[in-house]
Amino acid sequence: MDRRPIGVFDSGIGGLTVVKEIMKILPEEDIVYFGDTARVPYGSKSRDTIIKFAFQDSRFLLSKNVKAIVVACNTASAMSLGELQESIEVPVIGVIKPGAHAAVRASKTGRIGIIGTEGTIGSRAYENAIKKLYPEAEIIGHPCPLFVPLVEEGWAGTKVSYLVAEEYLKPLKDVDIDTLVMGCTHYPLLTRVVGDVMGQDVTLINPAEETALELKEILMEKGLQNDPENNPSYRYYVSDNPDKFSRVGSNFLNRDISNIQKVDIEKY
Amino acid sequence: MDRRPIGVFDSGIGGLTVVKEIMKILPEEDIVYFGDTARVPYGSKSRDTIIKFAFQDSRFLLSKNVKAIVVACNTASAMSLGELQESIEVPVIGVIKPGAHAAVRASKTGRIGIIGTEGTIGSRAYENAIKKLYPEAEIIGHPCPLFVPLVEEGWAGTKVSYLVAEEYLKPLKDVDIDTLVMGCTHYPLLTRVVGDVMGQDVTLINPAEETALELKEILMEKGLQNDPENNPSYRYYVSDNPDKFSRVGSNFLNRDISNIQKVDIEKY
Question: Catalytic site residues (chains A, B) (predicted)?
Answer without folding.
Answer: 73, 184
